Automatic annotation (TrEMBL):
Protein name per UniProt: SRPBCC domain-containing protein
Similarity annotation: Belongs to the AHA1 family.
Activator of Hsp90 ATPase homologue 1/2-like C-terminal domain segment(s): 17-164
Originating species: Paenibacillus planticolens
Pfam assignment, any one: AHSA1
InterPro entries: ASHA1/2-like_C, START-like_dom_sf
Length: 168
């Protein structure tokens, strides 16, 4: 996995040992997302998934101790199996955008662009993410979280690796 960060964007590239159609489905179908999305150790529940521009993937994550967080993707561009663009945010149970439970200055919304490239039967996924219209304080906090976010996505993508291996 390669990672780069500038002040406003986190870029992670990872190669998965699976065809890109399958990797794309793992990002866009609830029965797949249930098996890998989110931090390690969290239990994901899908409230709804409407895969269309303007549609929402609304989900909750629960820790083993019972702490529950809600999140959502609002889809922009969807070009199967090549590209997926969505805005990610924390939410409440009704899918209203809310502040992150861990910081009042984490950006409200993160725009993510995922590209899926087929390479010898494998998939090279590149994820570019950055805050949407952040304040100076939010942008600085996002930049300060780069290493933590890289580690978090490393764990999440590790779960996707394990899940894809089970499907092979």
């Amino acid at each position: 996995m390669s990672e780069t960060t500038n002040a406003n964007q986190l870029v992670i590239t990872r190669t998965f040992n699976a065809p890109r159609e399958l990797v794309f489905k793992c990002w866009t179908e609830p029965e797949h997302l249930l098996n890998w999305w989110g931090p390690a150790g969290m239990n994901l529940e899908v409230a709804s998934l409407d895969l269309r521009p303007g549609g929402v993937f609304h989900y909750s994550m629960k820790s083993p101790e019972g702490f529950q967080m809600w999140g959502k993707f609002v889809y922009g561009e969807i070009t199967p199996p090549e590209k997926l663009v969505f805005t990610n945010s924390f939410s409440d149970e009704e899918a209203n955008t809310v502040r992150a439970p861990f910081s009042p200055v984490f950006p409200l919304e993160i725009m993510n662009t995922l590209t899926f490239e087929e390479q010898d039967g494998k998939t090279v996924l590149t994820m570019r993410g950055g805050p949407v219209n952040p304040t100076e304080e939010e942008a600085a906090f996002f930049a300060s979280m780069a290493e933590s976010m890289q580690q978090g996505f490393g764990g999440t993508f590790g779960q996707l690796d394990e899940y894809l291996a089970k499907l092979a």
